[in-house]
Write a structure and sequence with these properties.
Rossmann fold, 9-stranded mixed beta sheet, 36% helix, 2 domains, 17% strand, globular, alpha/beta
Length: 422
């Protein structure tokens, strides 16, 4: 049986399972999740005391219903079916739905709203791309099978592997991915927007307007880079948080989109964000189905409002604008700023997660769940938006995220009224 790896946005679906997982096709990250036992949360807890699932869910529902503005955060490490219930739950309790995108690829979503995304699939990159650019990302370490399965070394239908493929890395330091590349351009921090604008000027024939040096690259290097981009029969630009979390943020991504649009007047290019968690793409997409927006959605007025600078998790907690929090498949205590975590520790926190993490230490209600893609099945979106079905291949005594959220939503609807299409 073939199973998929629920770790990163690659969602590699070629792993063989015959009683045990085939380790040969697993990267170190996938192996750590699929084959190594981590410390599990053994049972539901309320204020540190062991309780049943029903008691924990009842207490969680009480917290959400008594809150004036609860925050429901996380969602990148669960399945679409559970995420849908989470969005509906946020609406029913008049809360805020936010995903981990607000601290990673949120700027990519804002840029896509403004400009659209000239996107494609990883299959197209694998089979057609003869020029591959990695801008501000390091898949050799963050998505280890990406170079061998989709981009650098893989043999495609129209490109016979690395020999006929040019790989370019743009970053502020020499990364592991740069060691695999044909060409590496080291740029100055916070210079992405200026460099992208200069490349567009050169491609449009306005190189006289480009200074002798932009962001650490000389004019001759910029011309060389532009010629390399134009030499592609089919090109792909992958970008990561090196573009989204440096000066410019969403404007950097808009500049990348405009660069691809400019290149498409001469050849064919696609653009692809390198998403991190295995279903962070689905966490945004499902929210778009249900509410029209991907993240930072406020339901406190009875209808969805979108404003990342006001309704994202960090901003809400920093301003003390939420009085309860539900965390699903995430560890905000480990990643949020200290002042934000300090407010988290003062409000009721509900955690749904398979494993102990730092958020467990501040959670008032802890509900252990089955591991999605291992102990529970469901559908997720790969980083390029292609749906992948995760299979269950290990039995578990734990409830799935879907079962927990369904029980919570049923109790909320029972008390507040209304209907839900299951």
């Amino acid at each position: 049986m073939k199973v998929s790896c629920p770790f990163c946005g690659n969602v590699c679906d070629d792993i063989n399972f015959d009683g045990e997982v085939e380790r040969e096709k697993l990267c170190p990250l996938g192996e750590s999740k699929l084959t190594r036992e981590k410390k599990r949360i053994p049972y539901p807890m309320v204020e540190g005391e062991r309780v049943s699932y029903d008691e924990a869910i009842e207490r969680a529902v009480e917290i959400l219903l008594n809150a004036k503005r609860p925050l429901l955060y996380g969602w990148a490490s669960t399945v679409n079916e559970a995420i849908r219930l989470g969005v509906i739950l946020a609406e029913k309790v008049g809360g805020v739905y936010d995903t981990t995108s607000s601290v990673c690829h949120g700027p990519s979503i804002l840029a896509t709203i403004e400009e659209g995304l000239p996107g494609g699939t990883l299959g197209q990159a694998k089979n057609r791309a003869d020029v591959v650019v990695f801008w501000g990302c390091n898949p050799a370490e963050a998505h280890p099978r990406h170079p061998t399965r989709y981009s650098v070394m893989v043999k495609g239908f129209l490109v016979e592997g690395r020999r006929l493929r040019k790989t370019v890395v743009v970053d502020i330091r020499k990364t592991a991915t740069a060691l695999l590349s044909s060409k590496f351009y080291m740029i100055k921090p916070n210079s992405d927007f200026a460099i992208l604008t200069a490349l567009r000027s050169i491609i449009n024939g306005n190189d006289s307007a480009v200074p002798n040096e932009v962001g650490g690259l000389s004019k001759s290097q910029l011309r060389e880079f532009a010629e390399l981009l134009l030499s592609a029969k089919y090109g792909v630009i992958f970008f990561g948080m090196g573009a989204t979390h440096t000066r410019g943020q969403d404007r950097n991504v808009e500049a990348l989109i405009k660069l691809v649009q400019t290149l498409n007047r001469h050849t064919r290019y696609i653009l692809q964000p390198m998403r991190g968690h295995f279903n962070v793409t689905g966490a945004d997409a499902v929210a778009c189905w249900e509410a029209g927006y991907g993240y930072a959605i406020d339901f406190s007025r009875g209808y969805p409002r979108f404003n990342p600078t006001e309704f994202s998790a960090v901003q809400l907690l920093r301003r003390r604008d939420c009085d309860a929090m539900l965390v699903v498949g995430s560890d905000p205590v480990a990643h949020f700023p200290f002042d934000v975590v300090r407010h988290m520790a003062k409000i009721p926190v509900i955690q749904i997660d398979p494993h102990y993490n730092l958020t467990t230490k501040v959670a008032n209600v802890v509900i252990p769940s089955a591991i999605s893609g291992i102990e529970a099945e469901g559908t997720v979106y790969r980083m390029d938006g292609v749906p992948v079905r995760l299979k269950k291949f290990r039995e578990s005594e734990f409830w799935s995220d879907y079962e927990i959220l369904k029980a919570m939503l049923e109790r909320v609807v029972e008390r507040k009224g209304g209907d839900v299409v299951w």
